[in-house]
Design a protein that fits this description.
Elements: H1 2-54, H2 62-70, E1 76-79, E2 85-89, H3 93-98, H4 102-113, E3 117-120, E4 128-133, H5 137-202, H6 210-231, E5 238-241, H7 242-254, E6 261-266, E7 274-277, H8 279-297, E8 301-310, E9 313-320, H9 327-330, H10 348-359, E10 363-370, E11 374-381
Parallel strand pairs: 6-8
Antiparallel strand pairs: 1-2, 1-4, 3-4, 5-7, 8-9, 9-11, 10-11
Helix pairs in contact: 1-2, 1-5, 5-6, 7-8, 8-10
Length: about 375
Amino acid sequence: MFQQLLNWRTVLSFVAILIVSGTIIYSQYLARKISKEERQKVEQWAEAERFLINSPIDADTKLASMILTENKDIPIIETDEKDSITSHINLDSAAIAKNPAYLQEKIKEFKSANKPLEWTSSVDSSQRNRYYYGESLLLKEVRYYPIIQLIIVALFIVTTILALRSTYKSVQNQVWAGMAKETAHQLGTPVSSLEGWVEMMKTIPGNEMIVPELEKDVNRLRLVSDRFGKIGSTPHAEKMDLVKQINDMVDYMRKRATDKVSFTVNAFGNNEVYAMISGPLFDWVIENLLKNALDAMEGKGAITVGIKPREKGIYIDVKDTGKGISKQHVANVFKPGFTTKKRGWGLGLSLSKRIIEQYHKGEIFVKNSEPGKGTTFRIVLPK
């Protein structure tokens, strides 16, 4: 699925680049062509105006008059040799009346856009007229069209990618939920059977030492099944004491670690810290973090769990003195399948992230990590 998304993104990007590149090249060609034609029109307009000024009384001025009146889109400002404005056409009369400097500003704009036309009088060589002209609305539209199209194409690509990404995440969530439900279902039958056998063994003399241990393991399997069942459905959150919850899980992990590993829970003077959590799922997250810490320390070191109520939420820091995480791996630790261990599926931290963010509306991230010195994971829960 991810490979298909990647291929689709590549194809869409390539098609978009082709469309935009072709549009830009063609629009620039059209813009140059229209600009050349507009300059010719301005030259014709200037010649027509000069003809009308200098023509004999009996001359035929029909063509010159038609050329002058047909120009309704190209703005032109006529000046004398001192750049004093003598006339203008196709400009905003309201802006001219409102702003006295409007015409001078337009001259500067036209001068930067196009080289002005000049005409020298045949009678008096000192008399020169300049014609400054700007771009018609059509030419501006042709110039800005690629930008508008680029924005539209970009929006189309972004929308498509977001839709594909949303679809991918939805499918991924369905797969996660389906796997979790199926796992809980598959575990349910043998666990129920084991519970029955344990009850039968309690009635047989001589099993007093074995039954309690078997009972613990069966309860553990029941807990795992319950956790997977909650992953596949909406869990029920309750107001629970985080200090007690974390201490219980630390005690559980302490019994399964070597005596060279020290565990510390620091609630910073708070005997109780309450939050709305799903007990089994939250325990699973803490267990995953503690197990990762134990694996990172390879049998010796210290694990500290800090619980800090703050205005923005409740901070839970799980710190170890293990081998740490390299910078290139920090961004990948929560991705499904990523692991640095020789054994493991790389799903523990991914599940933890899903449990904290989706079911508890919180955050979980690597607060800091330094190779050879240890790692601190932070969980932020809403109060």
